[in-house]
Q: What sequence folds into this?
């Protein structure tokens, strides 16, 4: 990501926080006005969004800091730590909802179809839908997986709120008030699922996950197409840290080749890799022919 686009990502993160706070206020009002457990769960989900936006904002700003002497590989993994914290918050919100749903199921509470409350909930959902669309558009334009993930998450929120609203109307129409608690539990399940996914992804990131096979294939192709003068490349390893991609491998050259000539080959490969793989950090270990493993990519 270029500097300009990371500025945009920070600005969009501020926007998500503002939208999250407004939507939370609207949904809290809707829950209070109707007394519905399902709408209360929906409002709790909005608390999750505000916390998520806040932690994401801190992480985005922190991970944009340049590397320094004490953290020479940069601050990119800050995003993973923040995501783990968010995941735990999300799981706690889900547990609170399950608790409410359980008590609501064994002792169904009356709720009223307050038109203002329901109208405000529809307004909050429309706001969320608009922001989700914007996030997906900006995320795709700026190649930011974080923004796209955020947009997808908001989209599922919109779908679940629509489901809750339809369900509350159904519960009122059929007189089966336990439906309200059942819907709340369903909202809780989707929230728990999104928390689990987030924690899983972040832990994988903290464990230095390799790039996807497709990207690794591209890296291999670029090395073999641009290693004129070298004999082979082997022991290719990759790892991701936020938006950064670290690539390292061994490059076998004839033993009599000068350091200068070997370094020139490395520079060509590095330039081509950086062109094709965004935010690539490349380290190449050069070794003489007698060390060749003949197990890597033969480039000559
Ligand atoms: Zn080697
Ligand atoms: Zn160099």
A:
């Amino acid at each position: 990501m270029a500097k300009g686009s990371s500025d945009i990502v920070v600005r969009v993160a501020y926007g998500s926080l503002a939208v999250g706070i407004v939507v939370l206020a609207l949904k809290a009002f809707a829950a209070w006005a109707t007394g519905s457990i399902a709408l209360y769960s929906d409002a709790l989900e909005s608390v999750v969004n505000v916390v998520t936006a806040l932690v994401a904002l801190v992480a985005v700003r922190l991970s944009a800091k340049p590397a320094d002497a004490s953290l020479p590989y940069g601050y990119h993994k800050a995003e993973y730590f923040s995501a783990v914290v968010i995941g735990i918050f999300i799981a706690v919100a889900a547990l609170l909802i399950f608790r409410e749903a359980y008590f609501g199921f064994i002792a169904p509470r009356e709720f009223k179809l307050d038109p203002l409350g329901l109208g405000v909930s529809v307004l909050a959902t429309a706001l969320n839908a608009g922001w989700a669309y914007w996030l997906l558009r900006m995320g795709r334009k700026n190649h930011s997986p974080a923004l796209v993930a955020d947009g997808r998450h908001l989209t599922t929120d919109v779908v679940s709120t629509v489901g809750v609203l339809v369900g509350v109307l159904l519960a009122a129409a059929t007189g089966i008030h336990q439906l309200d608690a059942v819907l709340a539990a369903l909202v809780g399940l989707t929230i728990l699922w999104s928390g689990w996914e987030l924690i899983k992804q972040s832990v994988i990131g903290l464990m230095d996950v390799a790039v996807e096979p497709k990207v690794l294939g591209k890296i291999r192709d670029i090395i073999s197409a641009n290693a004129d003068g070298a004999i082979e490349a082997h022991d290719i390893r990759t790892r991701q840290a936020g938006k950064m991609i670290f690539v390292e491998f061994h490059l076998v050259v004839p033993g009599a080749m000068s350091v200068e000539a070997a370094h020139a080959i490395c520079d060509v490969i590095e330039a081509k890799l950086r062109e094709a793989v965004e935010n690539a950090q490349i380290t190449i270990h050069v070794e003489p022919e007698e060390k060749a493993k003949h197990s890597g990519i033969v480039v000559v």
Observations:
- Residues 3-34 form the longest helix (32 residues).
